[in-house]
Design brief:
The structure is a homodimer. Chain A is of the alpha/beta class and about 350 residues long. Chain A is built from eleven helices and twelve strands. Chain A has a six-stranded parallel beta sheet with strand order 2-1-3-4-5-11, with helices on both faces. In chain A, α10 links the parallel β8 and β9. In chain A, α1 packs across α3 and α5 packs parallel to α11. The relative contact order of chain A is 0.11. At the A-B interface, α4, α5, β2, α6 and α10 of A face α4, α5, β2, α6 and α10 of B. The first copy, chain A, binds a DNA duplex (16 and 16 nucleotides) through α2 and α4.
Amino acid sequence: MEAAAPSSPTWQPTVKEVAKLAGVSPMTVSRTLAGGKNVRPEVQDRVLEAVHQLGYYRNENARSIRPGQASGLVGVAITNLGNPYYGNFALGVEEVAAQYGRRIVLGNTGEDTGRERQLIADFIGRQVEGLIVVPSSEDAAHLQPDSLRGTPLVLASRSVRGVAADAVVLDDVGGAYRGTRSLLVTGHRRIAYLGNVTSVFTGRRRFDGYVRALEEFGIEIDPELVRRGQQDVETASIAMHDLLDLADPPTAVFSANNRNTVGALKAIGARLNSPSKNRGILPAIVSFDDFELAELMPVPVTVVDHDARELGRETARLLFARLFGDKDLGPAREIEMPTHVRVVRA
Amino acid sequence: MEAAAPSSPTWQPTVKEVAKLAGVSPMTVSRTLAGGKNVRPEVQDRVLEAVHQLGYYRNENARSIRPGQASGLVGVAITNLGNPYYGNFALGVEEVAAQYGRRIVLGNTGEDTGRERQLIADFIGRQVEGLIVVPSSEDAAHLQPDSLRGTPLVLASRSVRGVAADAVVLDDVGGAYRGTRSLLVTGHRRIAYLGNVTSVFTGRRRFDGYVRALEEFGIEIDPELVRRGQQDVETASIAMHDLLDLADPPTAVFSANNRNTVGALKAIGARLNSPSKNRGILPAIVSFDDFELAELMPVPVTVVDHDARELGRETARLLFARLFGDKDLGPAREIEMPTHVRVVRA
DNA sequence: CTGTTAGCGCGTTCAA
DNA sequence: TTGAACGCGCTAACAG
């Protein structure tokens, strides 16, 4: 009987078709594609010719259901791809994964833990070989090893209390401390804080660094100057406007992340261009996270710099070390990547 | 005989284990997971309990090898994830894909067509339901329908000559024309061009718009003012320095993309801070692609604005329309997204 | 409502 | 060096 004409819109030839065309058995095709061990060169040529002619692609999904066969996929869950910082992080992960011949399945959580949970479940269902997650919260049940069925997990940027997983994080406390300190030594005494809520790992740690620096200089924290919870540029800008409207506004700002920095600078810029609202205040800013064109800002800018792409690479490296390296890496490791305080514009 | 203890590092329970624990057949488990049609509620509860207890995840790969079963994956190949523009594009794609319950497999081509070819082959091997590609060149063989085995393809941002695929692009010509024109009406006559080589779709079209505007004003193109081929901030900056060193430097710059804009502004900024090199030249800039903090630049800035995230959404929508919508969408469509000239700082 | 059979594409195992 | 048989996890199709 003739095989039915390819009816499905996306019909794909299989080893069978290739075998028939090459006049061999499917097994010989499989062997050829696996490297050609124990197949006569002449036969290999016939097979490869047939592969080419039919435009055959090996079905990776069928392949990966066999025991011991890897899927070639790594699941990556990120909080916000729209943030250039995480774009670069993803780039670094992809780069290293590609070196290992792996592909990444990417999901954006939007800081929503429910979505994060869904994504991880889906990833596991797809037999990913490993998981890289920028956790959206301290909600940790779905990150526990037994929920993950033994799939290696590396957390990035943020760690989670009570989760015994590898993590690559930044020297948040040190960076925030040194960044804030750089303002203090310049003479600033009213330094505002813009950042995440303390329930977020980095929010907690960076605020700690800020507090530590102020304490060292014997300065009490003024709650009025502390704004937390802004997740995006819009709300950060509003918070900054608030600060500038205070009776006794800050002379400097420590911004704990990229989004808050941009929002703050937008607010400052708006004041510059609107004389009525401009009270002559041009707060200096220290930004945890570098940002493009910082050197062109109209106010003094210092950044607590670090390389998002390298963070991504390092995270992926740690994952692959777990997967393929010496099995005795020991228990979960937390790697801290360094941060560098850099005066961009004095 | 007892089942062997889970030995593989990432062993996963299967329908069989769940079935045994629930005291039913694998088929009943499958049915329950598929929605529970024709399964007694009481039995469903037992099954779900077993699923929960074992932490069972359905193997999507095994699932998708069955004919007619979709993989739930969309392959996305992007030129440069590190560019915030494409980060937002990817975000838009992910967003719409998620609405359709699809996950994206992401690859970065780095403008390398060989890598693009590999990625697409891999995607097809993974049985992706569709492909979204930002093509890196006019090299098109691997994008032809017969290479793709019927997998629907939507090109984004750039189209490719001779490829009959859907594409969502920008109004490049119009945007570049109106952007350049805005400089001309302000009185500028020496307007430099920074952008891609003309072998790139957008490079060609945006240069066309630039030329058209100059011609309308009876201005001849000065080859000295045209710099093409810069792919990143670094080289764009060098090109801009070159322009500023000319005996008769430009009074304004039309930058055809985000990376060139940032590079150009960095060069301008460097001159501002280095009096020795500063010849008092502050060229105005028109940037195809918006960029953050544009309003704080020390020179007049106008952007040819468009929404990368929306471009991503629209691209994904078109793909899903092909996949699930009315089958009579007709032949390949090219959608042009509008661009808006916006004076950010006069 | 539930179970049995069969087969998706591939590759390990064993036989020729 | 080659092929046949078998089974990976899952689910249509067909009993019962």
